[in-house]
Amino acid sequence: MSTTTDRYVRVATLTEVQTTGSLVVAIEGYTLGLFSQGDKIYAVDNRCPHMGFPLHRGTVKDCILTCDWHHARFDLASGGTFDAWADDVRSFPVLIRQAEVWVDLTPQTEPQAHLHQGLRRVASSNLLRGVFDAAMSIYLDRYLNIPPARLPDPADTVENPDLLLKELPDLLDRQQQVNAAGKLVARYLYSGGKPERLLAMLGKLLLREDRDFHTIQEVEAAFRQYSLLRETPAGVPVLIAVARYLAAHAPTMRSQGQIYEMATRLHRGDRVFEDT
Ligand code: FES
Questions:
Q1: Residue 58 CB partners (closer than 8 Å, separation 6+)
Q2: Domain segments of the chain: what residues?
Q3: Which residue from 44, 46, 53, 65 has its CB within 8 A of the most atoms of ligand 1, so it is best to mutate?
Q4: How many other β-carbons are positioned within 10 Å of the β-carbon of residue 253?
Q5: For the chain, which end, N or C, has fewer CB atoms within 10 Å of the first or last residue's CB respectively?
Q6: What separation in Å is there between the alpha carbon of 54 and the centre of ligand 1?
Q7: Domain 3-104 falls in which CATH fold?
Q8: Pocket around ligand 1: residues whose beta carbon is below 6 Å from it?
Q9: pLDDT at 6 over 80
Q10: Mutate to test the pocket of ligand 1, among 47, 69, 82, 85 (most ligand atoms within 8 A of CB)
């Protein structure tokens, strides 16, 4: 028996997995999702890397596993995700021996450790910044639909910044106002506008759109970032980025408010769907 084979651990019988199509197994501190596809068995970490839903409750078609919660999709063989907002799930090598399923549970080197080593070896931090900048540009432009733009000029100020703030909702009633929204926020802050009022307005603009979990998460992350940076010049671009992000996704149908209103009425016992 080879050394590689020695690392494999028996986790189930072939029949157990094939009968149900998927099986969850807890072994040696791992919780594995086992999936039967054709004559093959696949094993992945059963915890969805997105928000932890048990993956054995997902659906599988053509070796693509779809999580039942937010529908992130994973290639069963490699664990690679098809969705930019989810991470890859760990997949485990599988062997079938005498009608039994064996899985290689050898611990992986943590990706953070690879990254840390890479950073320590890098010859030039400027080169690293360049690579990071390029990667972020592609991510923002391609996945978040936010085109790159120069930061607005700090000298571009107005007497009454509160008037500017009042213009922001109208701006986000129209499509393709990413740069205009960023510019408005910059002028507001450079003109001495109160960040608290801007944060409140940005929150309001988020809530009036149809938003999903990820939109809320992005804005919340920026607010947190701003709470750390607020007294420094680096805080301004964070709020410019929030405004640009919201503008890139506005306006939506704004129908979620109706849904919540309907839910409230149903909760109160109103006969919403009955003929009068
Ligand atoms: S928890 Fe699986 S997709 Fe969100």
A1: 48, 65, 66, 67, 68
A2: 3-104, 136-248
A3: 53
A4: 8
A5: C
A6: 9
A7: Rieske Iron-sulfur Protein (2.102.10)
A8: 48, 50-51, 53, 67, 69-70, 72, 86
A9: no
A10: 69
